[in-house]
């Protein structure tokens, strides 16, 4: 999205409570990549319309998006996976502080290795993929089978700073990730079991609904 339009929309968004502001500051200070405000705003609106009873999030970081989802959908149960122990610990503290420990269950570990545990806690009405960009297709295929019939999968960063649309990507470390994200997007758009829309908001949000 054009930067000035994005800034304009952000300026219209209601201010967040003190805890969220503290988390946003920490994320900025420690360069923890939480979801962009314009994108989380769109995702939360889709979720309010969808009203999922159970949500699976892949990529907790410090618990920011999990708490934003829980605020938007107070009745929803959220299972969220984080591979980094320090971030998972920080997320636990914030979730405790927000009084949401009974609603948000953090699983610490690699989402690629937690299939059985995640399955036991499912099925899920919504899945939010926001972890290692190179693994999106694996996450989607692994956990898509745990989605209820009316379920939706939300995937963040699918436009990956615009690299997916660039003819060439100069930085080597981004080139292969951009290629993987392009493959993921093509796979979503051609999928027999899902119908997907890609929204150019934040870093790109894909919303996939079961056909
Ligand atoms: C973009 S951040 C998540 C931001 C969070 N959803 C938010 O908006 O507040 C991605 C997180 O995914 C975690 N992660 C990366 N690969 C993972 C994996 N295989 N399993 C679980 N977590 C993973 C990273 O440690 C990082 O904290």
UniProtKB/TrEMBL annotation:
Residues engaged in binding S-adenosyl-L-methionine: 35, 65, 82, 110-111, 130
EC number(s) given by UniProt: 2.1.1.-
What chemistry does it catalyse, as a reaction equation? 5-hydroxyuridine(34) in tRNA + S-adenosyl-L-methionine = 5-methoxyuridine(34) in tRNA + S-adenosyl-L-homocysteine + H(+)
Q: Which domain of life is it from?
A: Bacteria
Against InterPro entries, the record matches this protein to: Cation-dep_OMT (IPR050362), SAM-dependent_MTases_sf (IPR029063), SAM_O-MeTrfase (IPR002935), TrmR_methyltr (IPR043675)
Is-annotated flag, keyword Methyltransferase? yes
Q: Which Pfam families match?
A: Methyltransf_3
List the coiled-coil residues: none
Q: Does the keyword Metal-binding apply?
A: yes
Keywords of the record, alphabetical order, are: Magnesium, Metal-binding, Methyltransferase, S-adenosyl-L-methionine, Transferase, tRNA processing
Residues bound to Mg(2+) are 130, 156-157
- Family assignment? Belongs to the class I-like SAM-binding methyltransferase superfamily. Cation-dependent O-methyltransferase family.
Q: What does this protein do?
A: Catalyzes the methylation of 5-hydroxyuridine (ho5U) to form 5-methoxyuridine (mo5U) at position 34 in tRNAs.
Binding partners and assembly: Homodimer.
Name this polypeptide is given? tRNA 5-hydroxyuridine methyltransferase
Gene, per the UniProt record: trmR
């Amino acid at each position: 999205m054009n930067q000035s339009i994005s800034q304009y929309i952000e300026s219209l968004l209601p201010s967040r409570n003190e805890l969220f502001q503290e988390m946003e500051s920490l994320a900025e200070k420690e360069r923890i990549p939480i979801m962009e405000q314009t994108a989380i705003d769109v995702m939360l609106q889709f979720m309010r319309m969808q009203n999922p009873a159970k949500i699976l999030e892949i990529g907790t970081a410090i618990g920011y998006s999990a708490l934003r989802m829980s605020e938007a959908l107070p009745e929803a149960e959220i299972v969220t996976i984080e591979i980094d122990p320090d971030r998972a610990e920080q997320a636990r503290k914030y979730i405790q502080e927000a009084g949401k420990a009974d609603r948000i269950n953090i699983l610490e570990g690699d989402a690629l290795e937690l299939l059985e545990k995640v399955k036991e806690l499912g099925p899920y009405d919504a899945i939010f993929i926001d972890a290692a960009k190179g693994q999106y297709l694996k996450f989607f295929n692994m956990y898509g089978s745990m989605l209820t019939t009316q379920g939706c999968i939300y995937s963040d960063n699918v436009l990956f700073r615009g690299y997916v649309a660039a003819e060439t990507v100069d930085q080597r470390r981004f080139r292969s990730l951009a290629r993987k994200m392009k493959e993921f997007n093509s796979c979503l758009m051609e999928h027999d079991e899902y119908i997907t829309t890609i929204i150019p908001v934040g870093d790109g949000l894909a919303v996939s609904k079961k056909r």
